[in-house]
C-alpha cells in the first residue's frame, strides 16, 4: 500500500517537474533573444550617436572655415576702404584748373574758335593734367567746364535754342553755333574745350580709368576775377575757362 502511494507521488512529481523545466528553458531562450536584440539596438544607437557626432563635427568645421574666410574678406575690404580714405585725405580736394586769356588769346575775339597755340597747350599740358587728376582722385566722375567772359559786347544772333541739342547729338559742328550774348559765348567756349578733350582722348588713344562725364556751363560776365571789374568791358583776366572736378553720380 505504501509502495503504491510513493509510485503515485513520483508520477505526479514527474508530471509537474518536466513542464516547469520546459517553461523555464523557453523563458531563458526568449530572454536570451531579447537581450541580444537589446544589445544590437544599443550598439546601433552608439554607432548612430558616433555618426551624428562626426557629421556635426564636420559641419561645424566647415562652418568655422567659412566664417574665418568671411572675416578675412571683411578685413581686406576694410583695409582697402581705410587705405582709400587715407589716400583721399592725403590728396585733399581736386584742384581747380584755370585757363586764362591774360598771357595770350585762347579764343579768337567774340568766338569759341580755339586758337592754334592754345590747342597745342591744351594737348601738351592741360589735358595730361586733367588725366592725372582723374587718376589721382578716384571719386571724381564729372568734369565741369565753365566759360567766363568779360563784359565786351557780343553782337550776334543766337541759334543755341534751336541747334544746341543737335550739336550735342553729334549732328552739327561747333562752328555752326552762333552766340548772341556773353552767356552764349561762355557756354560755346566751354563746349569747345569739351570737344577738344574728346578729340585728344581719341587721337592719343587714352583710356580713362573709369567713366567720366563732361558738363559745360557758362558764367558769362557775372564772375570776374576782381569784383571791382564787374561791368568793365575788356578784361583779359576775366576771360577764362575754369575746370573743376566733382562727384555727381551715386
Care to describe what's here?
With 250 residues, the chain is α+β, with helices and mostly antiparallel strands. The chain folds into two domains: 1-92; 95-246, 2-Layer Sandwich (60s Ribosomal Protein L30, Chain: A), CATH 3.30.1330. Helix content is 57%, strand content 10%. The protein has four helices and four strands, in the order H-E-H-E-H-H-E-E. It has helices at residues 2-91, 116-136, 160-168, 182-203, and strands spanning 97-100, 142-148, 213-220, 240-246. Strands 1-4-2-3 form a four-stranded mixed β-sheet. The longest helix is centred in the first third of the chain and has 90 residues, at 2-91. It is rod-shaped and about 135 Å long.
The gist of it:
This protein has four helices and four strands; from the N terminus they run αβαβααββ. With 250 residues, the chain is of the alpha+beta class.
Helix content percent band: 55-70%
What's the SSE pattern? HEHEHHEE
Quick one: biggest sheet?
A: 4 strands, mixed
**How many angstroms does the end-to-end distance come to?**
125 Å
Low-confidence runs of at least 5 consecutive residues: none
- Provide the β-strand percentage band: 5-15%
Look at the helices and sheets and give the structural class.
alpha+beta
Query: How many domains make up the 3D coordinates?
Result: 2
Output the number of helix runs. 4
Given the C-alpha coordinates, what overall shape results?
rod-shaped
The CATH homologous superfamily of the largest domain corresponds to OmpA-like domain
Oligomer: single chain
Number of strands: 4
CATH topology of the largest domain: 60s Ribosomal Protein L30, Chain: A
Spatially, the strands of the biggest sheet line up as 1-4-2-3
